[in-house]
Amino acid sequence: YYPSYMHLYPPDDLSPPATPPSSSSSSSSSSSSSSSSTISSSTISSSIDDTNNSNKHQQQQKQKQKQSNKNLPSQRRLRSSYVDLSMGDNPAQLSSTLDKNRLDYIVQVKTTFQNLSPQQKSAFLSELLNCCDNQLLAFVHTLIAPRLKIDFLKQLPIELALHVLSFIDDPQTLTRAACVSLFWNELLKDESTWKQLCLKYQYHDNNKSNITTSDGDNNSYINDSNCNNNNNNNNDDDDDDNIDTTATATIITPPITTTNSRQRRRRNNSKLLFPISGEKEEEEISLISSLSTSSFSSICSSSSSSSASASSALASTSTSSLSGLERQSQQLHNYNHNIFSYRNFFKRKYNIGTAWNRGGHVRVVDDAFGGELITSLQFDEKYIVVGCDNHRIVVFDSQTGHKIQTLEGHEGGVWALEFKGGEKNDPERILVSGGCDRDVRVWDLNRGRLLHVLRGHTSTVRCLKMKNKRIAVTGSRDATMRVWDIQRGVLLHVLLGHQASVRCLDICDNIVASGSYDYTARLWDIRTGQCLHVLVGHHLQIYAIAFDGKKVVTGSLDSSIRVFSASTGQCLATLFGHTSLVGHLQLRGDTLVSGGSDGCLRVWDLERYECIQQISAHDNSVTSLQFDDRKMVSGSADGSVKLWDIREGRLIRNISQPTKTVWKIQFSDTKAVILMQRKQGDNAGSNKTILELHNFDLEQV
Questions:
Q1: pLDDT tens across 244-280, in order?
Q2: What is the pTM of this model?
Q3: Residue 214: φ, ψ to 5°
Q4: By the 8 A CB rule, do 569 and 557 touch?
């Protein structure tokens, strides 16, 4: 906007800028232009004369229209200006290059042009453009192109604009779109867009950080069924274990103080998919309203008290009012800090997924072990707990990988362990361990203190499972199972029935499933100690079991997998495909993943009892596996650790460098722990056990 030039044109003019006549045009270009013109000069002149004589009434109407246009919003009015690139973008020089007569002529031509009909304007512009060379046409293009650019999203209602954006599935495209303009950037901050993207990408906040392996050196499975909610119940009373823990709270979005009612209504009506704990709606609304009304009114009322006898009273009142305001401001700050953002949630989840595929931050711990064998592993957001065959339990920090403490007391190798607790509302962790010394030990993990030593088994404790922080079940090579009250340190039941070593266990609600070397699996009631069903069908030892409350899945040395009904004990299906021992199972909904000594991984659909992915993953036995709804990680005795796309059965990458053998692997959403053995130097008999901690939440590193 150049005031020095705008005096030539009325300030309310809505027409595009006109190009002034050139005083230095060559005769050759003029002759060529006149020869290519489609309308003669006499025709245009006669049209202009006719228009001047017949449109006086139109001029009066236009004057009224111009007067009304002054009331239009300033952003909808087009600016009249002339920018000559040859003048260095300085229109003020125009008055110095043209004399007064030519400037007056330009104003007259412009006024005449505005009085033309649309057809006459088109003919007039066509004649002018025919008189222009390429340089002038390029200049005209620089004036026209920006005016033809329309922000289509800005022209739409907010709801329709967001609906258009909902069809974009690629977050990188949305990120680039946010850089287009300030309006697009603000539009893409709307939570509904990112909520839909979270649904499309199936990003869930499951808050399940405890990953458990407790079946010794040959069996490692994770049961991510609904039973996990009940397994984490730490109530003292067994009868309270059936409390419904699926109820979730909703977040109340605070009132938005904009004048756009559609935005306010849309944001207030969007229900969050990933709830977090917070205050009740009435408390939140009263907090904001009191902050905006009562606090300030109390200050005003205190300042209006009589000045004759209230100087001290005024001071005390102001101090109390300000302290109340500061307290409420702090509460509002804490509330805003806890507001859930789908945009931030999606960004974090997407970046974590990208780090999984490309590689995260790796911490290698090579000074905590010698060459001992690793038998068991579990970790959460605070502790990594490792059981070894050298009688020790080693505890590491999950954030740094530093060794915290060593729990000593077992007189033989530790073959099974598990801990419960560590949640936000239950920070105390109880660890249970068992091994070759036939003892079961109960530890206060946070303090590293031994609580109980439970004796009764007559052979190695080979497997154990905790129902909660009160009840634990152990299985032994003495062919018995024992149910313990680990709070009081007493035996509740001895489960008799198996005829050989109890190799694997799994718990759901008050039912425990066991697999044995006697070729059978059994279901037991923890409360009564009674055997509910004997599951038969295998021809050799059972090494792995998975139980979700409805189905019992067993893996055997006979290379088959059997699926049983938990309610009737009948065999529903026998799954063939592995050619050797099936030592690893994980059940998640209707998806089962199995790993065998043949080096193969198989993904099964238990609705149709079909193998949907067959992966020749390793050159030796699978020693550990785990999967979620997107990925699968497997480790093998061939020393490799591989990451797979479980939906496509495709190898994504090798997570770690090749080693001699991989003992254990466990992962959460953001971390992975790998325990492996590597050769030291050229000596084939010199091996060292190391721990690798992979962190994929790079924002927290």
A1: 333 333 332 333 333 344 444 344 333 333 333 333 3
A2: 0.68
A3: -145, 25
A4: no
